[in-house]
Amino acid sequence: MTVALIAGIITAVILVGAVLIYLTMRNKASDSSATEDALGRELTNVKVGLDEAQGGNDGAKDVKVASGGASAKVQDSSSKRFYALGALAAGVFAALTARIWSLQVKSGKGYAEEAQDNLLTTTSTPAPRGCIYDVRGRELVTNRSSQTVLADPKVADDQDVIMRLAAVLGIPAPIVSQRIKDAAGGAQSQRVVAEDVRLRDVAFIAEHADAFSGISCETRTVREYPHGGLAAHVLGYTGSPTDDELAQAGFGRNIQSTDSVGKSGVELTYDGILSGDQGERRMMVDAKGNVVAVVGETMPEKGSDLHLTIDAYAQSVADQVLAERIAPLGDIGTGVGVGGAIVAMNVKDGSIPVMASYPTFDPSYFTNGIPQDIWDLYNTDESNAPMVNRVVNGQYAPASTFKAFTSLAGLHHGYADYEMEWECGGAWDGFGSGDIQKCWLHSGHGFMDLHDGIVNSCDVVFYEIAKAFYDHGPEGTGEVSETALQDYLAQFRFGNPTGVDLPDESAGRIPTPEWKQEHWRNVPSEAYWRGGDYTNMIIGQGDVLITPLQLAMAYGAIATGDLMKPHVMKEIRNSDGDVVVTAEPEVIGHPDVNQEDLEYVRESLHDMISESHDAWPSFAAQGLDAAGKSGTSEHTDRQDDAWFVAYAPYDDPKYVVACILEEGRSGAEFAGPIVARVLGALFKGEGEDAETLEVASISGSSGRSVAVKSAGGSRTD
Question: pTM for this one?
Fold first, then answer.
């Protein structure tokens, strides 16, 4: 800008000077001509006067020659024009001088900084993400080297280089050209042409640098999963940032379009910790934006490492046993159920050593962008949603597993005690409405107290307790509110997220009269709260929804008396290996439960397993003394879901495990053995030979399913 300004000033000066010279010479010529004309006229007059004098009779006359009048007038006019031009020239010079002062002195510093910014530009270099480890330091997610071919933006105009690259890399030339023209990372940023390039191709490019002007090769890092799809839903995956993610980057986080960001699981929850600090490359560019030279470079810094509470060995057992139960031949439906979830929690500190969901996926599919055919496959109804983490996002009717909590509610309000008995004939119409509700055992259980009602999962016992809540509510004596049962259940956090450190946790649902009125606002006949709503809810049916994680946390409170906040993060270590953050146990609730009532329910849950013909053999095979409950939630349009939840050891509880099998039919028969195997794996993983236990590699779901044949029959628990 300064050079152009100086050139303009010089041009203006030359033009003004030329005009002045021209006008001066013109004025001189005009003055000379005017003087000569005036003198000629005077001389003519003199000659005429002499001629007349010589020819006259009386002799000569005096003659006076006037030589100054006309000349003076011409000179005066020329001087005025000259002064005017001088004033004009002075004004032009004054204006130019003022402008030069403004540009060079007043604003000079700002223009100099702008010029420097235009001369230099900065681009970022992606940082390696931190690694992820299990509770014993075993690798779950690492980084591997990837040979990456990069191109300067100017290569987009060099068709020869593009053709050579296409030939060496085996990529069609139009795709190479398109990638080089992609300016998403910045106008001067180097463009990624190919990743995971063969070393021999990298060597060829380096050896023939003259033929590949503007092309460079770097070793970058990409995510690697040593155990395939192990704990895939906990770990999550990474991908390129969306426009919203670029715009909503958190404080202190600089996200570039060329970065990889967490999309799900802990990769998303702890993205800011795992991401690291980008490197910078400062380059000199010319007026056209072409890179002239690299003047400085800062290397990227790896992100912090994340250590999880996940036990890789027990996790691999859980992932395997789910797949074996649901898809033993590779396709969903070739076993029992169409989907499922398992979660284990340490009841003492809330840590999560196991979280498995099936069908699952392999996060390595997302390393360089998921192939379109895999993405399309995983978004079909046939695949049964492999990307969904059923532990925190699956919402199911809890069925008979809910009876542990509704038992405590009945004891708390006095609608049940240790001596009270009820008769189960297999069917019940306590409201006298003609709307008969059945027990799962249609032949009936006979006389049952609450302990037997829990052990045998007798529905009629719980129908009677539900009727007592209705009879003492607003429709009866009014001794308790219409939400007395719901309020008691809320102590165990049902209907609320647990707060686990994973994204998008579902809250579940405990229905209330207010909820029902809103839900059925367009069908007034269905919006009224009835006694049948209590009897459905008290056995975990109807409109009740929970997640497997909520059930595990709530059973942990039965085992210990405390609600522990679940978490999957154990600690965070910086790039030097120092522990900078450690997860601390957090008690998030103390349910108001009478201790004698709690012991009564615990003993009933213990006897439920020990007296179960279906469940007990699996727990005995693992050497476990456990307490728990089965459940089978009924559906009108598909087969029943199977539940089982248990904690062990019974005398000194440490772990609780909950499992659901979608369309798994019987909780005790099919879900119970899974829970027993996972509990056994957890205690085995703590043994002296824990370090020698093999962690299996887990395959992603095939995405295929076969029709599930109806097994017939009805609930068995």
Answer: 0.80
